[in-house]
Design goal:
Length: 481
Amino acid sequence: MLVTAYLAIIFLLALCVGLELTARRLVPPQSTPAVANPVFRRFQSVFLRAYLLALWADWLQGPYLYKLYRHYSFLESQIAILYVCGLASCVLFAPISGWLPQVLGRRQTCLLFCLSYSACCLTKLSTDYFVLILGRILGGLSTSLLTTTFEAWYVHRHVVVHDFPKEWIPGTFTKAATWNHGLAVGAGLAANLLAEWLHLGPVAPFLLAVPCLACCGWVVLTDWGKEEAEDRPGGDEQKLPLGTPNGGVTRLSARARFSRSCHDGLRCLLSDRRVMLLGGVQALFESVLYIFVFLWTPVLDPHGPPLGIVFSCLMAASMAGSLLYRVATSTRYRLQPGHVLCLAVLMAFFSLFMLTFSTAPGQPRPHESFLAFLLLELACGLYFPAVSFLQGRVIPEEKRASVLAWFRLPLHLLACIGLLALHGEISGTGGGEEGSGTRHMFGGCAVMMLAALMAVVSLFTLGRNDTDLRLEGTRDEGDMY
């Protein structure tokens, strides 16, 4: 596995470079007024400095989390419970993450993220099981804040304060997504350098994340503070000091806005069958990914691969998938996002089907499992831009955040149920390398992915002639299917 991992990362990075050059040739970058606007470019740079540091710290914790728990001699069933605690805290804190910025302010909530995630990383120094559970709960809070608060600060400043055109917003997050893939690959390499090449152990990447989060907090405190100070009357702060007579009214209005947002999101979800089907696809597909995050290390680690390099391979495969999406939807090939989404779910199903055979008890085939994991990550790279496009078309912009929050609820619950089922299987049969718990879980994930495929087909059967589900340049080219 050692040689395989290094050969795979070289091949995948070369593939990504080739696909990037092809995508740039087929989809040349368009000049927009945003590129020539120095005020916007400065504002974008201030945001990306903090946001990318936060993403880098997040990715550093990916490769060696399971390995760290095994290093502390915890059983696989105990590790499953730790992961469940993290997912359950995401469910519990998801509503709070939307409410906190309205009460504390967006910038202060980003600082809270830096503090909570730093504390989460520092708990990894302890071998006490309950301290590690506390760390997973803090990690759930931090993940919920990362996925909502930074974007909320940027969108508010972009639209309300600077009054930039809304059409410029996707450009910033496209740039962030491009950097995000590179950061994920680099995080795997850096984690491998610390944990294995320098022999600092699996806790080292978590300790490296702490100064990265400190730098992120410093940028939020200083650069974002200067950004807000320049135009304080329209700034981020919308709450009154707690000591003012209207302080209670302000807090009540924040709760009222949050309650109304949740209600509007649920009503949108239940009133539009397209939204409900798309939410079903997301819940099924992404809950499988959470289970995969738990399972890839115990499947491959007994065979001695460098886990940081393997993680970089997985992230490079995902990057290749996103680049393939750009090529496939270009004016030359003109594949619709619906076609790409169907292909992604089908590829994911096939990879999980492969894993039910490659993880058979007593006769594991790690090279086949590694190939299946790469195929699953390639499918993820195709899936995320496709589903993001469709969400933008079927979910009204003003309700999108609350609808996506409702999507995440069944997503995390399904992942928790899956890991709890795996915990019961492992506890009862031994699981791991010798038991059948892992194989059964991959079989269950394959069934969930098959259900997601049926939901995709139903979605586009329902919207066969729906122009909202197509790219603009190909709306007159016939039906989706």
